Amino acid sequence: MKKNRYFPLSLIAAAMLAGCSTLPPQNTALDEARSVYSSARTNPQVVNLAPLELQKAGETLSKADAALSKGDSDVTVNQLAYLTKQQVAVAQETAKRKAAEAAVVSASAQRDQVRLAARTAEAEAARRQAAMSQTEVDEARRQAAIAQQTAEQQAAALAAASSQAQRDEAQIAARQAELEAARQQALSAQQTAEQKAAALEAARAQAERDQALIAQQEQQLRELDAKQTDRGMVITLGDVLFSINKAQLSPGGVRNVQKLADFLNQYPQRKVLIEGHTDSTGSLSINQPLSERRADAVRTALVDRGISGDRIETRGYAEAYPVASNNTAAGRQLNRRVEIILSDDSGNIVPR
Q1: Is residue 212 part of a domain?
Q2: In DSSP terms, which residues pair with 313 in a beta bridge?
Q3: 330 Cβ partners below 8 Å, 6+ apart?
Q4: Which InterPro entries would you find in this protein's record (predicted)?
């Protein structure tokens, strides 16, 4: 399949201005984004397993290059560069997840083949041993018949022939006992093979349950609109889910918190860090307590729904960590938010 090639607009612009003495504008954040994107482009795993995510990062990088070339503000360029790096991180994590899933499937198939080969070899060995024992019994019976004929023909040697016949019968009994032991061993091997088959079926069923649990967890995270970041899965409650300039959750916000509580009740090993953020309007003396109250409001709602308080940590950051420009109404609305960071299965959360 033909692969798409993405050339950042900054490279095209640099080629067009190669004859000019004026150097193109520079931006450290954009340079970092280009480096991260270039590194991902040279990773075959990312290129093959996360092409759409990588394409999206390339498109965002082109927008950042265009914004720099047009002389847009550093905030705009930095935001696009940051978004590019986040999209590259998503592509890398997607590739890792798909590679891990493929490895699990391959390992399971190889394990099944090895177990089947072992059971087949055990059964074949038991069959051969039983066949050999039967041959020995047949030979012993033939020798007993010859001895009997000799006894009838040689009356003078009747006593010796009778003694030999008794010995032969003893050998036959011994070999019959060996045959029975071989039969019991074959039966035991068959039972072992059946037990291994049952264990294999149980392992397969457990794997299916594990896959179903993973799929269910992914669906629940999609319903919560969780996003993968370098700190883990993050759920964002926007400004519209709170009363204006208040810390009370709106009905929509309550529904989102209920979904989160259901998820946490189902996965008790998970913890959350709740961070409140505001835009840059207003003073820090107003924004800081507002960001803390909004984070505490989400914590209270979770505790009311049965989530233990020792699984919840809150922070208020006011306007310290914007995700968009505070120069526009749309950007300020994006900055007024509560972010909920989910821990991994061991309860660990990456700090800022």
Answers
A1: no
A2: 273
A3: 324
A4: Bact_OuterMem_StrucFunc, DUF4398, OMP_bac, OmpA-like, OmpA-like_sf
Q: Could you tell me the pTM of the whole model?
A: 0.43
The pLDDT tens digits of the residues spanning 298-321 come to 999 999 999 999 999 999 999 999
pLDDT tens-digit map of 12-51: 444 444 444 455 578 999 999 999 999 999 999 999 999 9
SS3 content of the chain, % helix, strand, coil (to 5): 70, 10, 20
Q: What is the pLDDT of residues 119-139, one digit of tens each?
A: 887 888 778 887 777 877 688
3-class secondary structure, 152: helix
Bridge-partner residues for 275, per DSSP? Answer: 315, 339
Q: What's the CATH code of the domain at 332?
A: 3.30.1330.60
Is 47 a domain residue? yes
Q: How many domains does the chain have?
A: 2
How far is it, in rounded angstroms, from Cα 175 to Cα 138? Answer: 10
> Does a structural domain hold residue 294?
yes
Q: Where are the beta strands (DSSP E) in 10-99?
A: none
Cα separation, 235 vs 274, whole angstroms: 9
Residues 44 and 146 in one domain: yes
**Backbone dihedral region for residue 318 (phi beyond 0: left; psi -120 to 50: alpha; all else: beta):** left
Distances (CA, A) of 225 to 72, 220, 243, 291, 316: 31, 9, 21, 21, 22
Per-residue pLDDT band for 140 (boundaries 50, 70, 90) equals low
How far apart, in Å, are the Cα atoms of 206 and each of 199, 201, 202?
Answer: 10, 9, 6
Cα Rg for the chain, rounded, in angstroms?
38
First to last CA, the chain: 41
Instruction: Give the domain range for residue 144.
Output: 26-166
**Residue of higher predicted confidence among 67 and 132:** 67
